[in-house]
Amino acid sequence: MTVRVDLNISLDGFATTTDQTPENPFGEDWSRLVHTYVSTRTFRERVLHDTSGTGTTGINDDYAQAYFAELGAEIMGAGMFGLHDHQDDPDWRGWWGKEPPFRVPVFVLTHTPRPTIEFDNGTTFTFIDAAPEEALATAIAAAGGRDVRVGGGPTTVKQFLRAGLVDQLHVAIVPILLGRGIRLWDDLRGLESGYTISSEAAESGVIHLTLRR
Amino acid sequence: MTVRVDLNISLDGFATTTDQTPENPFGEDWSRLVHTYVSTRTFRERVLHDTSGTGTTGINDDYAQAYFAELGAEIMGAGMFGLHDHQDDPDWRGWWGKEPPFRVPVFVLTHTPRPTIEFDNGTTFTFIDAAPEEALATAIAAAGGRDVRVGGGPTTVKQFLRAGLVDQLHVAIVPILLGRGIRLWDDLRGLESGYTISSEAAESGVIHLTLRR
Ligand SMILES: NC(=O)c1ccc[n+]([C@@H]2O[C@H](COP(=O)([O-])OP(=O)(O)OC[C@H]3O[C@@H](n4cnc5c(N)ncnc54)[C@H](OP(=O)(O)O)[C@@H]3O)[C@@H](O)[C@H]2O)c1
Ligand SMILES: NC(=O)c1ccc[n+]([C@@H]2O[C@H](COP(=O)([O-])OP(=O)(O)OC[C@H]3O[C@@H](n4cnc5c(N)ncnc54)[C@H](OP(=O)(O)O)[C@@H]3O)[C@@H](O)[C@H]2O)c1
């Protein structure tokens, strides 16, 4: 059982973007940040339900496959689930449509829990107000021996990193400079000690960096 | 003629370190930040005058060779030259001993210029108080058609990047998190546009990233 994180970050370390508008709720920067990931065959099949077999293969797709492989449960923050953008909508069910790609229990950290949401494909969203250690114990119990992913966003991931709870951190460093947003790396001086580090260069200057315990 | 920058930065983007003490004037973090660079055969020969042929070869050494190749002139900031640490010493001649590795005219940007310093091996340090454009014109005139390197530190490099004067930026991203210091990437949103980007993974997780016009 591995506690894993996978994020796309910009060269200057940002894991969120800031140019969302009502007309473009994801924003241009988000497309640029996640471009190589969402272009993979795995993302297209698993998240967009595009089974036409288009999408890239190769290094980026290998990481996209690993993203979903062996997953037993997921933890995410209220921001990633969309609660901050949909505070006043009690019926908000997340960004992922009728078949969220997780297919496992997902625990959404929030100070204002709501009733659990269930989907036919095995995905459940359970809202919990808990410290990282406690949330992790809950997710591990639900994961049936498989991995727990801390999905994001950066505020949540940093909590788990600082608490020393993450066994494997994979970042795809995308060679764009966003200049603003929430940085993944703040106040993590010395994090690398205790990890073995490897890096792999993909197309278009994207770099996959992995810290493993 | 190419205007080039080469820097070692940490994963969290810092190009300076903060743990210098009188006993350890470079500091532990500096050793960790530049470890792969100073271990190369090229650095050992060119900077340390160690001609025993020890030192690493391979990707890191290829970049170290490129660092000195085709160089016609160098620009650096007062901080990199050591003026800030040796303000009260009118005889300070830089960190590099009797044979500084540059072997070309070096222009040191400072608001308090001093007399030019000359070395037998072709290195001269000329102190100038000038805007980036003006300093670059001076260095280009001295470079005899060869490249001009903006050597550092980050305060100086950022000025040249923001002014759009840099043709090629190479960073060795070293997988350590320093947590504090001067960041290379602040306020450079969108810098990547206009550059072609490539990356290459070296040993121990070090990544060489190059932006080329
Ligand atoms: N770059 C990537 O790969 C990636 C991946 C995923 C998401 N994202 C981006 O990340 C953004 C969201 O990130 P974010 O950092 O703003 O927010 P986040 O980490 O998703 O959520 C933070 C929020 O979760 C709740 N929370 C976190 N820890 C808690 C705890 N221990 N107990 C109770 N509640 C807790 C709090 O919300 P409340 O106080 O409101 O309850 C907190 O404000 C989104 O824009 C998304 O696009 C990026
Ligand atoms: N990571 C790397 O690869 C790398 C490479 C080189 C250096 N470094 C590190 O960088 C550090 C120094 O960097 P830094 O950012 O603090 O300082 P810096 O860039 O070396 O020097 C900045 C100083 O240069 C002078 N200056 C800069 N532009 C000027 C202009 N246009 N006109 C007049 N004066 C100008 C000013 O000094 P005054 O106002 O005092 O005159 C300014 O404070 C050192 O610790 C060194 O170890 C790292």
The ligands bound in this entry are: NADP nicotinamide-adenine-dinucleotide phosphate
The chain pair forming the largest interface, with residue counts per chain, is: A-B, 30 and 30 residues
Net shape of chain A: globular
Oligomer: homodimer
The CATH superfamily of chain A bears the name: Dihydrofolate Reductase, subunit A
SSE run of chain A: EHHHEHEEEHEHEEE
CATH T-level topology of chain A = Dihydrofolate Reductase, subunit A
Secondary structure class of chain A reads: alpha/beta
Strand content of chain A: 15-25%
Q: What is the share of helical residues of chain A? A: 10-25%
Mean pLDDT over the residues of chain A:
95
How would you describe the overall organization of this protein?
The structure is a homodimer of 213-residue chains. Helix content of chain A is 24%, strand content 24%. With 213 residues, the first copy, chain A, is of the alpha/beta class. The first copy, chain A, has a single domain (3-212), classed as Dihydrofolate Reductase, subunit A. In chain A, strand 2, helix 4 (78-81) and strand 3 (105-109) form a beta-alpha-beta unit. The longest helix of chain A has 11 residues, at 28-38. The radius of gyration of chain A is 16 Å and the shape is globular. The first copy, chain A, starts with a strand and ends with a strand. The mean pLDDT of chain A is 95. Chains A and B meet through strand 8 and strand 9 of A and strand 8 and strand 9 of B. The structure holds NADP nicotinamide-adenine-dinucleotide phosphate (NAP) (2 copies). One NADP nicotinamide-adenine-dinucleotide phosphate (NAP) binds at residues 7-9, 15-16, 76-80, 84, 109-112, 129-132, 151-156, 159, 182 of chain B.
